[in-house]
Amino acid sequence: MKELGVGIIGSGWVAGSHIQAFEANPHTEVRAIVSREKARAAARAAELKLARCRPFDRLEEMLASPDIHIVSIATPHHLHVEQGAAAAQAGKHLMLEKPVALDLAGLRKLQAAVRAAKVKTVVCFVLRWNPLFETIKAMLKDDVVGSLLYAEVDYFHGLGPQYAQYEWNVKKEIGGSSLLTGGCHAVDGLRWFMGKRAVEVSAYSNFSPHNPLKYEYEPNSVTLVRFEDGTVGKTASSVECVMPYLFNILLLGEKGSVRNNQVFSKRWVGQNGWATIPTILPDSGDVSHHPFKAQVSHFVDCILSNRESHANLEDAALTHEICFASEISAREKRPVALPL
User: N- to C-terminal Cα distance for the chain?
Assistant: First the structure.
């Protein structure tokens, strides 16, 4: 029998990808699904042929199960803090969908619970395991483009009625903001590539003239970030754009530049145009396209070797603080210093 039992909170679209990733790992087995309706949890388990999976409609019952060691939270955004804190207090390791919290108070509550419980965490900034991300990180480590002086990482994803989460995603109390509901992937990418501490945020956000998708929060934003060494970055995010999904990356370094999967470097003597790297780009909003299996493999290894993930809650909190600061800056029309 696999040594680590997993409980999934949620039975929807994202939960399915979490389940498949844990089932594919040689050390983990999905043994429980929690849903508002027990029948729905049971149907999901049957659909995915989870022979030893028990359905629950009460979180506390699942958390009391001694054969559950990891809890994966794949529910709407506003539920993450309470569910995550409860799971941590029950001594369960946590895989948390983003955003982990919709405000600073919720974030601090979740951090306090995890610190007190001393459980391992990983937050689903899953693009850190995307092949293009891994390629860019390797090039930065090898000094192909030198020290970065400017970076752009943008998130353009029209989240309309074709998405199952649309009805609740447009609500302020659940979706949060353009950055929190999706653009946080770009904010995290900006931090991941820059590798520096953010110290100040300035931002603008707006509604489109007619707000056709009925967002309760500004679905478009531009966020400028100043880092501790004076370098700067930008994240644009739109969740009402009318275009195919686009995750844009532009990194300018002292020795060259990266533009998505294209590279130009002074180190490569004789180069007179962009070199294209054949790899997998983060060019889909479909969660089935995301590398959850690689993330789960990393997280399980962290648990078994008793080490922290580079994408743990403490690191993810820094990405969330930029998102919160962006909201404050846009609303109050002023720069916001970090940390909050």
Answer: 45
282 contact partners, CB below 8 Å, separation of at least 6: 127, 130, 132, 133, 185, 247
CA R_g for the chain? 20
Domain residue limits, the chain = 4-124+292-310, 127-286+319-337
**Cα gap 130→161, rounded to integer Å:** 27
Q: DSSP readout, 176-241?
A: --HIIIIIHHHHHHHHHHH-S-EEEEEEEEE--SS-TT--SS-SEEEEEEEETTS-EEEEEEESS-
pLDDT of residue 61: 97
Beta strand 262-265 with 4-9: parallel, antiparallel or unpaired? unpaired
231 burial class (0-12, 13-18, 19+ CB within 10 angstroms)?
middle
Structure tokens at 340: 């909050």
The pLDDT, as a whole number, for residue 147 is 97
Instruction: Give me 239's structure tokens.
Output: 């969740």
- Top-level class of domain 127-286+319-337: alpha beta
**Residue 255, helix vs strand vs coil:** coil
In the DSSP assignment, the letter for residue 103 is: S
Q: Topology of 4-124+292-310 in CATH?
A: Rossmann fold (3.40.50)
Pairing between strand 70-73 and 4-9? parallel
Q: How many CB atoms lie within 10 A of CB 229?
A: 12
- Give Cβ neighbours of residue 109 (< 8 Å, ≥ 6 apart): 81, 85, 101
d(CA 19, CA 1): 17
Q: How confident is the model at residue 58 (pLDDT cuts 50, 70, 90)?
A: very high
DSSP state string for 37-102: SHHHHHHHHHHTT-TT-EEES-HHHHHT-TT--EEEE-S-GGGHHHHHHHHHHTT-EEEEPSPS-S
Q: Which of 185, 180, 125 is nearest to 327 (CA)?
A: 180
pLDDT, position 287: 64
**pLDDT recorded at residue 286:** 72
Q: What is the crossing angle of helices 38-47 and 13-24, to 10°?
A: 50
